[in-house]
Amino acid sequence: MDDVELGRFPAQCERPEPLKFAWPVVLLPELFTTPRHLALLFGYLASIGWEVFVPDLRAALGKGSTPPLAKLRFDDLAALAAEAIDGIGRDAVVVGHGVGGLVALKLSRHRRVKAAVAYAPLVPGFRTPLVGGIANRLAMRWRMPIKPPRGRILFELIADSDPFTRDGLIHGMVPDSGAIAADVIAGAIEFAPPDKAAPRLVVAGDSDIFAPLARTSKFAESIGAKLAVIAGRGHWLIGGRALERAISDTQRFLVRALGQDLLLLYPEEWKNDPDD
User: Fold this and answer.
1) pTM beyond 0.90, yes or no
2) What are 88's strand-pairing partners?
3) Which of 254, 267, 34, 39 is nearest to 164 (CA)?
4) Is 102 within 8 Å of 121 (Cβ atoms)?
5) Which of 5, 88, 130, 182 fits a disulfide with 140 by CB distance 3.0 to 4.6 angstroms?
6) How far, in Å, CA of 102 to CA of 28, rounded?
7) Are 136 and 147 in contact (CB under 8 A)?
8) Please, what are the averages of pLDDT over each run of 10 residues along the chain (276 residues)?
């Protein structure tokens, strides 16, 4: 793993040898989480031949024209992610979790994005329990930072994670932007129509209380995104027993959507192993 700079963003990068795929993957985290929470997803993708970047978008907050955390809107976050992708200087596949998944779907019209994949994206227009509680509701109203969940909601959030990672996941959570949460709940996000966007995939757990499957299905259909459902799993699709299935669904989608150009394989290998 290397520490690199994508323009003004520090990032972690893994360049496996040999590379199996033509374009890198950029990973974007959920509310209250950081690049650290994407470690298992990062490592898994790298182990199967993907070049992976995880930019730290928070490093730019409050600098120059970038708003501080308290005033950061959803479109501001999407703009930061787009800037990080431009910093790679090549086309890329964007994969995000939760609100990061919404950003990935938003960036499907970016000139450098070959495909966008959202793991358990928050649903625009739905008041997710992830940002519940009186204190967070007041913070959203006044555009102040919101606090990570606690108690039963926190347990539901990380229930599908690997047990040995849970303490680190909990202690690594950080306050986040109430303005972003308010934008999502209000449904104040526009997405490009299918004919003006790169291929899009939504991967959802059928037991996700933070983004219920029925609402997620309608949302995916409304933007023309493909939908893959993981039975018996909740919101934490970036670790635990859901991770392998989520990546398998992702790879199958990308190969079918992007074709042979995605794979750095000889034609004979392509014919024998199209979905690996």
Assistant:
1) yes
2) none
3) 39
4) yes
5) 182
6) 10
7) yes
8) 92 92 97 97 96 97 91 96 97 98 98 98 97 94 93 96 95 97 94 96 98 98 98 97 96 94 63 48
